[in-house]
Structure formats: C-alpha cells, structure tokens
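Narrative of activities, Objective 1.

The group set out to show that a structural description can be obtained from nothing but a protein's sequence at a throughput compatible with the screening campaign. Below is one input-output pair from the validation batch, recorded exactly as produced.
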Amino acid sequence: MDYVGRGKKQVMTYLFADHHSAFKRPPTPLVQQLLDLKVSLAGAWKLVDEFGEERVGQRIARYKHLVERGYQAKNKSGLLVDIIQDNGGNMGTTLKIPPK
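Output recorded for this entry:
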C-alpha cells in the first residue's frame, strides 16, 4: 500500500499481485533495504522497476540522512516513497530539520 499526501487529500493505493507478481521474485539487496524501511514487497519492486536502482539507492541515502539529522516524519515509509517518486529531485533537500 502506498500513501501520497496528507489529511483529507491523502490517497492510498493498494497493489494486488497476480501470478507474475513481485512475490515470486527474490528481493535484491536494494529491495531488502526498502523492506527494512517498511515499504511493502510489491511497492519496493514497483519503485525499483519504475525508477531504477541508481535513483532509488540515492533517494534512500537522502531519506536516511534526513532521519539521522532528526527529521520527524509522521509516516516514515510514506516520506521515503514520496522522496523516491519526486521527479523534481528536491524533496528531502528542503525539509526543515528541528534544532537540537
């Protein structure tokens, strides 16, 4: 399940698998990273297939950097997916980190 947006404008997307689904593919190390960050298996494969390993890997690093610096996301996996899907490439660079 993928979440986009917040509040009343939030959209949840359910991905139902068929017999050729991501569930029959063994996870790669990158897909496993996404699973460890609470992205569903089908969602992880969809992101890697759609955006490529290089972009997904770079965006995971950006997400981890934000979290390590103290950014508090209400939905961490949703934030990660939004950062990966951001075509402008700026999401995650403009978020405000609370002072320590």
